[in-house]
Amino acid sequence: MEDSVQVRCTRCKNVFRDRAKRLQNGYSRQCPSCETVLFFDEDSHDPNIKRAMRTARRAREEMRESEGVSARKAAAVPRQYGGRSAPNSRRTEAEDDD
Ligand SMILES: [Zn+2]
To answer: Residue ranges of region Disordered (predicted)?
Structure first.
């Protein structure tokens, strides 16, 4: 699922990507190319910004719809950092017996 949205800089026309979750009313960020601060608003006078806002909102809706599926998938995959502490603490208890 695509969670990033293409944004075109108002000034230098450079195209970069940002997270759909971030692109909401009131959000602002610098263009990575010319460092102009872009303000994101659905009522922006800039058609580039407006289009990015629309795309981001649609992407967020799609993500919300597919959330159930991905959550189930994530639960099936064992977490890499999850099970490390449990066996360790048990071993410490055993060594404490000394
Ligand atoms: Zn720029």
So the answer is: 57-98
